[in-house]
Structures are given as structure tokens and as C-alpha cells.
Amino acid sequence: MTYPKILTVQDISCVGQCSLTVALPIISACGVETCVLPSAVLSTHTGGFSGCTFRDLTEDMPAIKDHWKKENISFQAIYTGYLGSAKQIEYVAELFNEVAAPGCLKVVDPAMADNGKLYTGFDAAFVEAMKGLCSKADYLFPNLTEACLLTDTEYNPDYDRAYIDAILNKLTAMGCKNVIFTGVSYAPGKTGVVVLENGECSYYEHDKLPNSCHGTGDIFASAFVGALVRGKSAFDAAKIAADYTVECIKVTAKMENHWYGAAFEPVLGKLIGMLA
Hints:
By secondary structure, this protein is α/β, with parallel strands linked by helices. It is built from 9 helices and 11 strands.
């Protein structure tokens, strides 16, 4: 069997169960060699902690890439998460061009906004840079806010299927080959994932749990990438990732004072079983 090698590019929050501390173990558990390129190192994530340390690694990224090229290292998939600046987006685009193996899957999570607002520190120039990266993606992972920003669509949380379909058409017109549209709800108490793959649209719905957890987007994307590289279709990978994320939220809800992230580790065995 082939043994694929994935590169994931995002920050490390040393405590908080998100970004690289989620992506590395989850993709590895899927049976895939997982390589990392940290864009920054934080002592904790910023969602509820205060005064965290921050080390920007932007200018380390080209030297790392150049060393990989010298050693003839390439990747069968490149998955990007949170990127902190337009310069980092530029460096990731260089990775797509220079260390991607033939047929490399390029997966972009445009982690920049939610609930109708950009994350702190991002602006219109960052959105424009992200549009360019997303146009190169084989698989794109936007939530509603990110999809609206990428397509210059007015944000409307009271949407219908026609509204979502119109956004999907705009994303594919940008150049995005396949879209995994997360957090789409068409009925009270339900949420789900719209999967657009090879021009065919499908929807996987599940119960919307009352509690939410930091880092669930990273869990979903990482599980999806692992399943996809293992040979699952986009729909099956999205179903596995959604079901696994729900299990993580459920087990976290039973824990006392576990507010800072989703406890994905106790149910990694279930993810492995879903892939079997």
C-alpha cells in the first residue's frame, strides 16, 4: 500500500486543544504520516485565556521550505489552517507550487471569521489574500461567515437553500474545485455539512448539540483530511468527521471545567473504527 505524507500548516497553541495539537494526532490516528509547519507558537489559544505568549514564525517558513526542496521532500496533501497574515498566505502559495507531489491534494480552511465578523487582527486586505489561496484549493472548508467574505455576499444568518447554493456557485467560479460548507442548518435543532464534489451537491445532517467547544472546526477538518487521504469520498469523509466531532462534544460535556477545548483524545478509537 502507498503511505501518503501530509503537510499541515497552522499555529501551535501549546495548551487548548486546537490547531496543530489537534491536527497532528488526529491525522496520525487515521494512519497517515503527518508533517507540520508551525506558523506561530502560543502558550495557549486566545479563546478565554489572557496574556498568552506569542512567537511569530513567519520568516522561518521560506527557509524550511527551501530545506525540504534541497532534500527532495514533497507531500501528497497540504492542509492549511489558521494563518496569521497575508505574508503567511503568500508563503503557503509557494508551498503549493514547490513542495507538492504530483496530484497533491490542497486543502484550505480559511480560518478567519465567524458569526458575521472577522477575527481580531484581520482586515479586508487579508480577505483578498485568502481569496487567492482559496482559488487554488482542491477542497475548501468555509463556514457561513467565511463563505460570505470570500464571495462578497451579504451575511444573512436567516438563509435558505437557494442562498447557500448561490454562495457555492460563487466559490466554484473563484476556482475552488470542491467545497465542504460547514455549520449549515436547514431545520431547528439540526446542523450539517454541505458537500460539493465534482459538481454534485449532497448534505449530511445531524443533531445540533446545545454545548459548543473551542477547536471543533480543527477537529472536523483534521478528521476529514485524514479520511480523504485514506481514500474516502468527500461525502463519506465529511460524515466521518462530523460524527467524530459530535462524539468529541458529547464526551467533553460530561467533564467538569473543561471549557477551553473539545476532548478529542478519549474517542480517537471511535474515529479509527469509523475508518475501518
